[in-house]
Write a structure and sequence with these properties.
Oligomer: single chain
Number of helices: 6
Shape: elongated
Strand order of the largest sheet: 1-2
Largest sheet: 2 strands, antiparallel
Helix content: 55-70%
Structural class: mainly alpha
Radius of gyration: 22 Å
Length: about 190
């Protein structure tokens, strides 16, 4: 199989991962909201008589079971409100996944497929295979990994992905992820 086709398969898997995460987060958020609704007091005496605000202050623990003792230890403690915020559209979870998907696109390209595709196209070295889109993705990757998702001045030199300015927080959302997927697909198909 042509390495460009293999890379496109990875790109599709990463995009689907992003979309699946988005849908899963939304489903989990609905589940939490339904649980809270059932616990909120109603006129007929149903529920626990708590307000949503009281429930939002209650803690949620993510536990880890010690395989030897069988005891549980808390590894993450949060409130129900923080949990819902992380899961919401534009929340911390999907923002992190979007940024990591961009990083994955670049790492697979640079560490595995760029050299194989360059070889297939007859280049002496992978560095001879230059591409403005992947140059831009690398600038984003560097800002995400090395600058805590804050755009560096290099972001303003991007030729294609002109989404952010220096100092902006980089948050790759669904529309940007979809655009990135389509741009990568176009660039890679041109190499086949």
């Amino acid at each position: 199989m042509h390495p460009a086709v293999e890379y496109l398969d990875i790109v599709k898997k990463v995009f689907v991962l992003f979309k699946d995460c988005e849908l899963s987060f939304n489903d989990e958020l609905k589940s939490i909201s339904a649980m809270q609704k059932a616990m909120v007091g109603k006129e007929k005496g149903e529920g626990l008589g708590l307000t949503r605000e009281e429930l939002d202050k209650r803690s949620v623990h993510i536990l880890k079971k010690d395989p030897i003792t069988g005891k549980y230890d808390t590894i993450v403690k949060t409130t129900q409100k923080e949990w819902k915020e992380r899961l919401s559209k534009g929340g911390e979870n999907i923002n992190f996944i979007g940024n990591m998907c961009l990083v994955l696109y670049y790492q697979y390209w640079e560490d595995n497929y760029r050299g194989k595709i360059a070889d297939k196209l007859g280049y002496e070295d992978k560095d001879d295979l230059k591409n403005d889109l992947f140059g831009d993705i690398n600038k984003y990757r560097n800002s995400i990994i090395h600058h805590n998702s804050i755009a560096t001045e290099e972001i303003e030199k991007c030729k294609i992905l002109k989404w952010y300015k220096e100092g902006d927080e980089i948050v790759i959302d669904y529309l940007q992820m979809e655009e990135l997927f389509l741009l990568i697909e176009k660039e890679i198909k041109a190499l086949i």
